[in-house]
Design a protein that fits this description.
The chain is globular. Strands 2, 3, 4, 5, 6, 7, 10, 11, 12, 13, 14, 15 and 16 form a 13-stranded mixed β-sheet that branches. A 3-stranded mixed β-sheet has the order 1-8-9, with no helix packed on it. It has one domain (13-227): Roll (Carbonic Anhydrase II). With 228 residues, it is mainly beta. The protein has 4 helices and 16 strands. Zinc ion (ZN) is lined by residues 93, 95, 112, 178.
Amino acid sequence: MATARNEDWSYTGKTGPNYWSSINKKYALCSTGKQQSPVNIDQAIKKSLPLGINYHNDLFKIEKSQYTVKFIPVNHSNSINLNGSHYTLLQFHFHTPSEHTINGKQSDLEIHFINENNKKSIITIGVLVDSGRLNKEFQKILNANPVDEDFERKVVKINLQSFIPYTSKKFSYTGSFTTPPCTEGIKWIVFNKPIQFSEEQIHSYQNYFEPNSRPVQPLNDRDLFESW
Ligand SMILES: [Zn+2]
């Protein structure tokens, strides 16, 4: 990975998730926080979630970090609506294996779509990925070749609709970023039904990127909600 930036935290050993808060005072919430993510999702309370997802075909710039790759919209045309508030997509990225688990089951990958409104409040949409059918849009990302020196100068055109399981039930809860500084107050919406990438696609991705999933965190006294 040619241009990866070095973080002071990691996913294994003495700078792994259990030690994040001791690396830097700014990361204190990673251990003192009571609303941390990811979580295991099992029992949930039914509640309506007036969510509209306006994702479509768009151009994305590629920005590589040490443990993942971010896709940043060139335009600001991908957005979501929740309770009448408009949130613009800031970036999406991948984790492998998944960070959220459903009834204790981990998926092969998880996609995070970070959306922000004009009050700087953030909704992250989580989509789990299991092995199955080939996904043509994900193939465009693999074809951009993350080990290529020019990877970060490339712009890819991706239709995000093929990453959203529109007919799936959704879970929601209040949590945090899953990487330091583990900032809280993040609204999470996680789709119950995984989408599919082919086994070969998942293996290709895992060849490019090391595991980057934080273990599930205690729910404490938070409620999990489910909706269609
Ligand atoms: Zn993430």
